[in-house]
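Build the 3D complex.
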Amino acid sequence: MNTTTTTTAEQPTLDNIHHLAIAVTDVTASVAWYQAQFKCDVAYQDATWALLKFANTSLALVIPDQHPPHIGFVVDDAARFGELTTHRDGTRSVYVNDPDGNALEMMARESVRAG
Amino acid sequence: MNTTTTTTAEQPTLDNIHHLAIAVTDVTASVAWYQAQFKCDVAYQDATWALLKFANTSLALVIPDQHPPHIGFVVDDAARFGELTTHRDGTRSVYVNDPDGNALEMMARESVRAG
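Done.
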């Protein structure tokens, strides 16, 4: 008997945008501003960047000379884009540029926790 | 007897990021490039912009002097941010800048179709 895999609503056939990171000049002030405008949770914050969790994806606020603005995608076979780096949170990824120089982080699906 | 509202998984308590729009110079070439890298669907495309649907949000590729790069949020009471404009797709929104000049589109929740 074959083993079948059930695709759930949490594992769609389209790729996921894990986060986007935009440039700010003052992380503390920007976190306060975003929390005043939106219903979002602060998942991480230090002097150089913060991570705001929204319902469907996350928004990183970054000091650009510390952390470059980019978009993070969860993809299959991320290594096709280059050598993966393992980060402190356990995710593995590689940065590439699109044809216009937009920075994209290609994150290995198996290294990204659900939710 | 009071009327109670049930919150479903599709109506989370955190706000949603509806789309992000990034600058490209050639919409046709960029759509082809993104489709080659990612599992995404082309929801709309013309010479000035395209909308790529991902599992959890959408990515717009825009010619910046036609459509400014921005992030679109679905929010309650969008009119608190200013006068709403109704777009051809029926959504109503207003653009504001964050403290660093990042452009944000505040979209009225009741004008955005589910999914």
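Chain A has a mean pLDDT of 91.
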